[in-house]
What does this fold into?
Amino acid sequence: MALTTHTTPSGFVLPSIHAAKPFFTQQPNPATQKTVTENWTRLILSYARHKKLFNLRVEDATDDKSEWDEVLRNPRIQRRLRPSHLAAILSSMVAANQAMYEPPNQTSSVLLFWRSPEEWAQVLYDWANSTGHLNTIMTFYEIVEPPVPSPLEGLPLPILRKAIAVLTKSARAQIIAVADGEGVRFLPGVPGR
Amino acid sequence: MHRLGGVGISAFDRQQQSKRSFAELSNEISQAQVDLLHAQLAQFRSALAHYASTHRERIRQEPSFRHAFQQMCTTIGVDPLAGPRKGGWWAEMLNLGDWQYELGVQIVDVCVSTRERNGGLIEMGELIRLVSKLRGVGGDVITEDDVMRSIKTLKPLSAGYEVIDVGGGKKMVRSVPRELDADQAVVLAVAQEDGGRVSEQALVARRGWTEERARTALSNTLLRDGLCWLDDQDEEYGVSYWVPSAMRWDE
It folds into this structure.
């Protein structure tokens, strides 16, 4: 049996390890499991980036209709990632700041940081700058559901908040209370920061 | 009575004279011998250099030719691969020392980069395949013999690189200093037969082991050494074990 990469219908290239049957089992040897977790983390984040997915739930492991099905299941070798294994992977991702539990205080659903909050902050600031939104007040809603396509479209609010927090720290943004919720004002800041 | 040296005081002179003559003669003779030896050596050297330089490409490219050359060198007591320092002009002439070191470096490269998934154990054929891929050469250019030699050159690094025979003509290269017991070698051999998969049942059926023995060997290989991965979704046995170093990875 040769382990090869596989291109899914959505155009994502699954690595050859995804064709290895034991990759879908939680390993009792901690060193081996570390390798398995690292590979799953990389796979999940790159797939999320590919399909612009933010949410991953433990239930996705049992749902064949899930948008994660191509990754969490390999029908060519009849293997699927077990929910308990996925939960362990998610917990390690949260610990490594590659995801956050959302809603908080539960451990079965996460938001994925396929861009780190710092990277999102930069994307956000660059977008505000290039679209001439510096110094104006914008609602969160206007940012994540803009009338023209933008890289921030569909960005979950918790991640947006984290990104804005990064900008606030470097004095490039300011949170403003607006009538229908929260808003933000982007500041010109110091060049090069 | 005739005396060799003559008589009287002149005998001393004569004796010294003949001593000198003998010394001269002996000097001449040994000088001639040394010269001859030098000439022969020079001739041998140039013949060998000529041979090496005319066949250099073939030696480097053709495994069978390289092997024959290495055997010839071994017969006359010279190691052409002893390295640039130790082997002097041999290695220089052939550039084989460098070739061998280069191969060694690539072996290390492959072993280290695959270590996290195979636990530091790689099958010889797989190693050769990956090294060949790294060098961008065809399948038959690098032989098992070359790999074994290169691994020998890695010895001074004491990184624990070692070729182990798992039986059935299969060899594995171990890149972590760790002892394998006899039962584990059998586990690896059985995994080789089945594309990397091995199970308690297979060990019992094919090697006549008791379940207990199979279980112990597998759990040592799995838990203690991390040389195999567990698969708890096996269709046939429920639980099976996979030896990544015996699986074929295309990437």
